[in-house]
Amino acid sequence: MAPSALPAEQETVAELTNNGIELNVSKTAPSISKAVTPEVPQLAELDASRLEVNLTTSPRPVPGIGSPEMASQKTCTDHMITATWTAESGWGAPQLKPYGPFSLMPTSSVLHYATECFEGMKLYRGYDGKLRLFRPNLNCNRMLMSTNRIALPAFPPTELQKLIMALCAQDGAKWLPKDRPGHFLYIRPTMIGTDSALGVQRPTEAMLFILLTCFAPMDDIPGGMRLLASQDDMIRAWPGGFGYAKVGANYGPSLVAQGEARRLGYHQILWLFGEECVVTEAGASNFFVVWRTREGALQLVTADLKERIVLDGVTRRSVLEFAREKLTQGYKGLEKVEVVERRFVMQEVVEAAEEGRLVEAFGAGTAWFIAPVGHVHFRGRDFEVPMVEGECGRYTKVVKEALRGVMYGEKGYEGHEWGVVVEEK
After folding, report:
1. How distant is the alpha carbon of residue 2 from its chain centre?
2. For the modification N6-(pyridoxal phosphate)lysine, which residues carry it (predicted)?
3. Residues 6+ positions from 421 with CB-CB distance below 8 Å
4. DSSP assignment of 284-335, as one string?
C-alpha cells in the first residue's frame, strides 16, 4: 500500500521502515542501492564467483520414488551452500560443502527474535532430459525484500540465483536422474541472524544457506483440497505487518490452527481477515475462485496485494500473467474470463456457491503447485466446489497444464523464458 493511503501515524511507521530498508541496502549491497551514500564504507558483497567447492567423500543413496524417505521431507542431497556475513567485513566467500549440521550460539538472534526468512523453489527434471528452475529471479528478488524487512543483510539477487544454480548443477544429475522425468527436488534458500548478542537489535552477523530436499508431490488430492475457514481468533497477517514477506514468523503461529484443521479432516486453513471475513490465502498458498457474477460475467478472482497481507507468490503471479494472456481471449474452447485482483469477502463466495455461480476454486503455490479445492467449511456451513473435469475444474486444469509444461519442458514449452535451464555436472 502506498504511504499516501495510510493514516498519518501509519504513514510515519511506513516511512521509518522504508528508510531503514534503504539504509540497510546502501550499507550491505551498495551495487543495488538507489541511495547515494559515498560516506558509507564499502563492505564485501555476496559474490558467487568466489564460491569454494569441497565435495563430500561420503555420498548417500537417492531415495526411491514413493519411498518413506522421499515423503518425509527430511532427506537432503549430498551438498549445501553456505555464506556468512558480518557487519565489519560484509559477505565472506560462499562455500559448496557436504550437507550436515552447523552450530549456533544459544543466544543467536534467530533463536530469540525470529530473524529468519526463506524461499521455496523447485528443481525440475524435464521430459526433454533437462534440469530447470521456474522463474528463479522472482524468488531471489522476493528473498531480498524479506531479508530487508527483518534487518538482515542485503545482496544482489542475481548472485543468489547463481549460487542456487551452482548447487542444482552439482547435485541435480544424481538426485534427479534422467530416468525420472516429471519429478523435482525442493529448494530452500534461507537466511538467519546469527549474532550472539542477546540484545534486541539488528543482527551484526548472518548466514545464508541453500538446501535441496526430496519432496513428494502434494497437488494430486482425490476430491480436491478440503479447506477450513479460519475463526475470529485466527489471524495470519494484518495491514502494516509483514504478511507480504516470506519470514518464518508468518508460519510458526499458524501451526496450531493448521494442526487442528488436519485433525478434523481438512488439508489447509482458508485464512480470513477482520469482521468482514476478507479472503486472503489457503494455507501457504494463494487462493483463486472462478465464479459468474449476477450480471453474467465469468471472472477469475484472487486477493489483491494492496494491503500487503497476501504473499506475492511466484505461482500466483504466473497464473495471473498466463490468464491475462490466454484466458481473457478464450483458450482451448473455454469461455473467456475476466481476471480480477481485488479485496473480496467470504460471504461473496458463499452466495456464489448457494446461487450456483461458483464455477471452481484452486490454491496456487510452490509446494502445493495448482491444487483444486473441492470443499470449504465456513462457520458451521459446508459447501462443495464444482470440479467438472473429475478431479479439478476446466480452468484449473488448463492453468496447471500450461505451467507444468514450462517447468518440465514439455512439447511446445521447451524454450519458454520462464524455464531456466541448469547445466548439470
Report:
1. 23
2. 246
3. 130, 131, 132
4. TEEEEEEEE-TTS-EEEEE--STTS-S---HHHHHHHHHHHHTGGG-BTTBP
Topology of the domain comprising 225-407: D-amino Acid Aminotransferase; Chain A, domain 2 (3.20.10)
Distance, CA of 140 to CA of 118 (rounded, Å): 10
Instruction: Say which DSSP state 345 is in.
Output: B
Q: Tell me whether strands 338-341 and 278-282 are parallel, antiparallel or unpaired.
A: unpaired
Beta bridge partners of 420: 133
Instruction: Please check whether residue 266 is in contact with residue 228, taking contact to mean a CB–CB distance below 8 angstroms.
Output: yes
**pLDDT 10s digits, 221-259:** 899 999 999 988 788 888 888 889 999 999 998 999 999
Q: Is domain 3-214 given the CATH code 3.40.50.2300 in the classification?
A: no
- Distance (Å, whole) CA 421 – CA 419: 6
Residues 290-315: tens digit of each pLDDT? 999 999 999 999 999 999 999 999 99
pTM for the model stands at 0.93
pLDDT category at 19 given cuts 50, 70, 90 is confident
pLDDT of residue 119: 97
